[in-house]
Amino acid sequence: MTPTIKTPRQRRALAALTASDGQSVKQLQIEVGQNNIPQLMATLRCAGWRWTCDIIEVIDQDGKKCRPGLYRLDPEQKKLAAEMVGNREMV
Prior knowledge:
Layout: H1 8-18, E1 23-24, H2 25-33, H3 37-46, E2 51-55, E3 58-59, E4 65-66, E5 69-73, H4 75-85
Helix pairs in contact: 1-2, 1-4
């Protein structure tokens, strides 16, 4: 199945994912302009895109450990995504 981009939000998410080695939910909320990032990522998976969500451990502003997710586009699809969103220099 060839992955597709169906909405501007999906395009912005893929652009953000091709521009980095990983994006947190908070980063994607800012880049995409949507609060429900897990839903958006699910729609990308249904559209044929493969990604992972790695749980990382960080210290929050109160000095407490927390474990946010870090979304990463499948390396095999990163170049395709960059070409589709017009960000060839971002791979």
